[in-house]
Amino acid sequence: MIGLLQNLIDALSLGSIYALTALGIGLLFGILRLINFAHGDFITIGAYALIVPSADVTARMLIGDFNIALMLPAIALIVIVAALLTDALVFRPLRRSSPPTLMIGSFAVSYIIQNAVLMMYGSRPKAINLWSDANTQVIIGDLRVPMLQVITLVVTLALMAGLSVFLKKSRYGVQMRAAAEDFRMAQYLGVRGNFVIGLAFAISGILASAVALLYVTQSGSLSHTMGVPLALFAFVAVVIGGMGSLVGAVVGGFLVGFIVTMLQAYLPPDLRAFRDAFAFAFVILVLLVRPAGLVPARNTVERV
Amino acid sequence: MTMVATERAVTAGGASAAELRAEHLTVRFQGLAAISDVSLQVERHQVFGLIGPNGAGKTTLVNCLTGFQRPTEGRVLAGRTDTAGWSPTEFRRNGIARTFQAGRLFTDMTVVENAEVTGVSLGLSRRAARVQAMELLDWIGIADKADEHASILAYTDQRRLGIARALMLSPAFILLDEPAAGMSDAECEDLMVLVASIPTTFICGVLLIEHNMRVVMGISDRIHVLDGGRTLAEGTPGEIQRHEAVMAAYLGLEA
């Protein structure tokens, strides 16, 4: 029983990371019909921004040593700038291209970012020590809950609530929702296309920077490909949840986190190495039953 | 019908062109003319009826007057300004609004948000946009459904919402493409009472495409008849009713 509870908490924590990542991917897909595989590399940028650029094995903190009130906005700003630059340099010229072309474009961005990180920081993974205090455990009865997992969940819920309020209540949120549903109609009614797309990139940058900090604190290491598996699982979460639905992206993220954690915990040891294969098999099952995802978006038409 | 909307909506701004004019418009699709050499002028104090059989080119003409279709020849003037090269959005920003036959509402948003989008994206604050949107919903009779999802609106209410959305920010002209299509006669007449009041209530000229002859004749100040993409006649409702070619086109009589 305790074991199961412990696993559930792990699942919630991992699911939070996937859900936040999936939100970033889902938001851009909603507005731009772009499946942004470079989103994982936005996370990588946020993580590497913590340290001094060098090829040394040990990471020396740069922004990571700032006061937290300065560090959070600094990291967020760097990732936002990276995301906006990506839009300006790559996706704006491809604005009228088909979704598959956009996706290939995002692969290119992904490789460019990874190799840029490789050039600046070297290829070896680096150990990094961010907020190690957060790894202390809170003991509730027989249950040991790492503080970090609680923080991860709280931050995730706070960001989701913030995004939800923004989309519902702010004048820009209304425009983004309109653009996500019918881009041409929204544009006709006065919504500025490039503006809402830029806004979506910026928000996905904020989400990516949050994931970067949570993930680095948890894993204690940096690598130039660290964002790739995150983006892959988050993409799977978006597909399971229903392309174009933000609620779906969150549900999918938590579900993928749950599946991966439970497989890790309960698969026979011999099979654990194949955990991801089982996870993706489950995904295929979900899609066989619900091809449009768990929370299908009403209209997933192509953009102009 | 309440008229509380009126004053505030009128003072909310909007464009000032006194008339919307088409001069010798021709649109050809791969050599086939959808409309040929059509000229007309809609004024801000008028309901201007545009009628004609299916395929006469009515929607193509409305598309030209709102930037959705570039004319092959001829030009569209907003007041004295040549609109050549304007995007649909520029037409909308300059106070020339339209509705669509297919509705094209945002079904994942609430009724009032559908109207608000136009307000906030053309510069109003969220609060000001909501106030104006609610006034318009009230005017058109669906204020009680403001917080419902647009997807569950009855078909007739969807058409009403389309009109309310187009009236946001006090346009100078509104082009209604068959706003009463699919409505019962009673619903149609209710709606047309409102449409007829738009020029005086909002100081906004109306171009109305409508199939119900009795309705068009009843509320239009002028009527323009298209047939096969060409102008068949233009005049007051009385003149049109006496026009032999028009009656022939409509009733299939030999002129």
Automatic annotation (TrEMBL), chain A:
Keywords: Amino-acid transport, Cell membrane, Membrane, Transmembrane, Transmembrane helix, Transport. The keyword Cell membrane applies. Pfam families: BPD_transp_2 (PF02653). The keyword Cell membrane applies. Its main location: membrane. One of its GO terms (cellular component) is plasma membrane. The chain crosses the membrane at residues 12-35, 42-63, 69-90, 102-123, 143-167, 194-216, 228-261, 273-293. One of its GO terms (biological process) is amino acid transport. It is found in: Cell membrane. GO terms for molecular function: transmembrane transporter activity. CDD domains: TM_PBP1_LivH_like (cd06582). It is a multi-pass membrane protein. PANTHER family: AMINO ACID ABC TRANSPORTER PERMEASE PROTEIN, BRANCHED-CHAIN AMINO ACID TRANSPORT SYSTEM PERMEASE PROTEIN LIVH. Belongs to the binding-protein-dependent transport system permease family. LivHM subfamily. This is Branched-chain amino acid ABC transporter permease. It comes from Skermanella stibiiresistens SB22.
TrEMBL record, chain B:
GO terms for molecular function: ATP binding; ATP hydrolysis activity; L-isoleucine transmembrane transporter activity; L-phenylalanine transmembrane transporter activity; L-valine transmembrane transporter activity. One of its GO terms (cellular component) is plasma membrane. GO terms for biological process: D-alanine transmembrane transport; L-alanine transport; L-isoleucine import across plasma membrane; L-valine import across plasma membrane. It holds the Pfam family BCA_ABC_TP_C. Residues 20-253 form the ABC transporter domain. Keywords: ATP-binding, Nucleotide-binding, Transport. PANTHER family: AMINO ACID ABC TRANSPORTER ATP-BINDING PROTEIN, CONSERVED COMPONENT OF ABC TRANSPORTER FOR NATURAL AMINO ACIDS-RELATED. This is Branched-chain amino acid ABC transporter ATP-binding protein. It comes from Skermanella stibiiresistens SB22. The lineage of its organism: Bacteria, Pseudomonadati, Pseudomonadota, Alphaproteobacteria, Rhodospirillales.
